[in-house]
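We store amino acids, tokens; thus:
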Amino acid sequence: MKSDLRSFRELTPSDGHPVLAVSWSPSGEAFMCVTGSAQPRFYDRDGKLLGECARGDMYIRDMKNTKGHITACSGGCWHPIDRHTAVTSSEDGTVRIWDANHILQKTVVRPSTPSASRVGVTTCAYNSDGKLLAAGMMDGTLQVWGVGGKFGTSAAVGIVLPPSAQMVEKQGWSYVSRPNQIMRKAHEAQSEISSLAFSQDDRLLASRSTDGSLKLWDLRAFKSPLAAWHDLPTNYATTNVTFSPDERLLLTGTGAVGPAAAAAGGSGGAVVFVDVRELREVRRVGMPSSVAAVLWHARLNQIFAGVGECQGS
């Protein structure tokens, strides 16, 4: 962005697909763009395309044997410390960890499901040092993996090779399924978990869902939420939750629907502030329309809100 607040370059990562997530590398030299397509893209800081993730074979049933997502992505972020690692989630029921330097798949994470059916992953997030990875599922499940050190086993193990060796594509990635922690029915089924956020001390995990709720979890006692706040409707499946820089507050946005809009003092959405220590809502700031994203900038000490142009009914 230039000094006149105008962009110096405009990009269209995937024609016909909405942009769902943009994440900078820890060094700030590149960023990842996740859209509704199955292939996230990597760009340098000047907007030059560095590469595109491979698309998996949709005819392979076992997702651990595909070299990329096969259906629409739902989210993603860069590793908080390692500039060569990024993670994405998808409706194909997997979370995939990527080598951002060579843009190759490193690990396929297939969350545990109660049956053999495929359940879409709606969001994913790293903790502050990248040693924990969390994912939210379409069935309302939360799952957490410890990804520090050696993570996963070779995906090539157990594959029956065809007669002709030259027909085999080397599977250099690893595979993980069983999570370290799991919470079934954390949110309502068929309501997308739109965002996850870890506290800096890795004890707390906040989850936001399109079921109109925000929940705070203690990872040391991952059996029931510490607190839950309802009446938080949203019009967007990407509505996020974030901690304030001092982690005293949680922030999220609401849509321009229901009694929440009226309580905020207008027909639009609102930015909602929740006190983490007292476990209560402390304020709602009305907005002209539905709030899709919020960010509290630590250095500027300013809050940015992404607001939609169209109001809900």
User: Anything to note?
Assistant: Helices lie at 258-263. The chain has one helix and 24 strands. The chain has a mean pLDDT of 89. The first strand starts at residue 19 and ends at 24.
